[in-house]
Each structure stands twice: as structure tokens, then as C-alpha cells.
Design goal:
By secondary structure, the chain is an alpha/beta fold. It contains six helices and seven strands. It is globular, with a radius of gyration of 15 Å. It starts with a strand and ends with a helix. The model has no long low-confidence stretch (mean pLDDT 95).
Length: 189
């Protein structure tokens, strides 16, 4: 099977659109442009686009549930498209990675990320690929949950489009070159 499922995590609705927590959605929007298609509603409570990226068939998806309930739509899509966990790529914001850095891995814990916790619980496995978009740590004693629900700062917004493009490049590298080669490219910073 050559089909990949690429899911961006975020919260639905315009009030969340520019939040740090919606980095996954931002990356998926760039990938949709590259694939030359538009998202459409899917019965698995997600917006999907079927197309090609990096020479492979892909389904790009943005769950319509809130972040903490992402697992249901992701599981529904995996079942509908018959995509095993090892061909699932989840793109998400990451507090433990500095802003602008992209980190790739397979499996691991959720690091307190409720979207990942929901996906792992629904799938019954942690063995899926992750593209971790660095949003950095909150300043001072700010609650991390409040930090990720804030928009990127003015300074971050200057580089945000470039960093989102880099994360989209990382997704394509994962698909075309595999995890080790993609890590060698994107972990160099």
C-alpha cells in the first residue's frame, strides 16, 4: 500500500486559526496548496484532501473536533482508508522544541499534549510518525495550556510562514526519503 495519511492537529474555527496550538492545521494548509486541492468534509469528522505529494498518494486531514478529541477522527480516517499506524504522520505543535525548529520521530509519549494523548488512546498504539513544530516554552510562569491557545507573537510571525513551509518540507521528506534521512536533514539546526 502506498497511501499515507497526514493529519494536522488544531482546533476548529476562526478564533483559534492563528494560535500556536494550530500549527498542525497551518502546515496542512501549505501541503494542500502543494497538492493542488481543496479540503472537503468527510464523515469521520474531518476535512480531507486526497492527492499526491512527494510522488506518493496522500490523504491530508484536519479533524473538526477540538484538539483534545482528535483521536476519534484520526482513528475513523485510518479505518476508512485502511491506513496502518506506521503510515500515519501527525503534525502538531510542540512546547519542548524551540520556535522555528522541526523535529521528527516515530512513537514516544505525549509530553502532556492532549491531542497526541487522544490519538494514541484511540489508535491503541504510539507507533506513528510525528512532525513536531516547535512553539517554545511559555514565558515566566504562564500556564502552558494558555500559552498554546495564544496567537504567535509579532516577532514569531515574521518567520512563521517560512517555518511552516519548512515543516511541510519535512512531511514530504518523511514520505519520500524515510524517517532517518528526513531527521538528518531537519535536525541539523
Amino acid at each position: 500500500m502506498d497511501l499515507w495519511l497526514v493529519v494536522g492537529l488544531g482546533n476548529p474555527g476562526p478564533s483559534y486559526a492563528k494560535n500556536r496550538h494550530n500549527a498542525g492545521f497551518m502546515v496542512l494548509d501549505v501541503l494542500a496548496e502543494r497538492a493542488g486541492g481543496r479540503f472537503r468534509s468527510h464523515r469521520a469528522r474531518a476535512d480531507v484532501l486526497e492527492g499526491r505529494l512527494a510522488g506518493a498518494r496522500v490523504v491530508l486531514a484536519k479533524p473538526r473536533s477540538f484538539m483534545n478529541l482528535s483521536g476519534g477522527p484520526v482513528k475513523g480516517l485510518c479505518d476508512f482508508y485502511k491506513v496502518p499506524a506506521e503510515r500515519l504522520i501527525v503534525v502538531h505543535d510542540e512546547l519542548d522544541v524551540p520556535f522555528g525548529a522541526v523535529r521528527l520521530k516515530r512513537g514516544g509519549g505525549d509530553g502532556g499534549h492532549n491531542g497526541l494523548r487522544s490519538v494514541t488512546k484511540s489508535l491503541g498504539t504510539r507507533d506513528y510518525l510525528r512532525v513536531r513544530f516547535g512553539v517554545g516554552r511559555p514565558p515566566g510562569r504562564m500556564d502552558p495550556a494558555a500559552f498554546v491557545l495564544k496567537d504567535f507573537s509579532a516577532a514569531e510571525r515574521k518567520d512563521l510562514d517560512l517555518e511552516v513551509e519548512r515543516a511541510a518540507d519535512a512531511v514530504e521528506a518523511l514520505i519520500s526519503k524515510g524517517l532517518a534521512a528526513a531527521q538528518n536533514t531537519f535536525h541539523a539546526d
